[in-house]
Fold each of these.
Amino acid sequence: MATDNSLDMAIDGAGFFQVLMPDGQMGYTRNGTFSRNGEGTLTTSSGYVVQPEIQIPEGTNEINVSSDGIISVMLAGQQDPQEVGQISLANFVNPQGNPRSAGFGKLSQGFLEGSNVNVVQQLVSMIETQRAYEVSSKSISAVDEMMRFLSNNL
């Protein structure tokens, strides 16, 4: 889904964003809703710091993320973008890699990953399946009843 937020990122393909959990362990997520905390560090919407840690300087007018994860910023008063870091992705069994390399997906700036399930369609399909099961069950019961009648009357 397009969001027009320059810090939102979606992974198109395999891989997970790496975040530092409060207990010091590494966590993994595909939720690319990122923001800057008070110190300018790139964090998740829950406040977990994205790993490797990336600082976005004060006075940044524009943030660009390439499809291979390189983050560049345009600072006020400067004409050339400044590279501030690169997003790394992890895949399980936990090899690390950069986006668009070694089978990892590419990053899409300004997008978020949406669900690939249509809830309404799945609910209708489940109801149809349940009705088909009920019809089949009643048919089997009717055949069983006929066989019992024949068996008792012959």
Amino acid sequence: NKILYSLGRIIVRLYARLMFNLDIRWYDDPSPGPKLFVANHPSATDPFLIHLISPQPMSVLITVNAFTVPLLGFYLRKTRQICVDPRQGSAALEEARRLLENGRSVMVFPEGLISPKEGGFHSPRSGAARMALKTGMPVIPVGIYLPRERTLRITSGISGKETAANWYLRGPYSVTVGQPMKFEGNAEDREQVRGVTLSIMERIRALAQESEQRLLRRRRSPAQA
């Protein structure tokens, strides 16, 4: 499994070097130990590129549609990615919690869907907040920016049923990884969960805007890039 994960990460990194102008900035040097990463979700490419932000193996919550694709689904299962199937309720979040508590980092996209192509964000869901409160793990907010007008709506029937998603295949891809956030409290307290959810999403939005501004500055001053 470790070999498969490392091989997949190498392939993603090679593709990124060829096709993307990838810019990843950390506020702090990544420390060892499990973390709960949370990010916005502007394209279907994010669950693959996001592995490049962490030097340690990471499990990402990914739609069940990807797991039904031959070979890809096998790879995702073997590398301990997490299948999100609405028919199974909170099973994905429970699996993510177990992985965190067993020492593996996890990535959650709180929007639950790919962000609107016209811009902005979907309202965040509460799963990441409840997981943070249950585990006490540090929450690492991540802000992704890419020119959404360059995403491609691709429809495929390779999984056995027709699915469509906005993929980003080449161009600038800017990521800002923020400082850890820590939360304590009761995961069953709805008001507290709501407050943590909004705090997490507010920080993600700010970091996504920072990623956008950095890309715009690079475009205006290529000599300083």
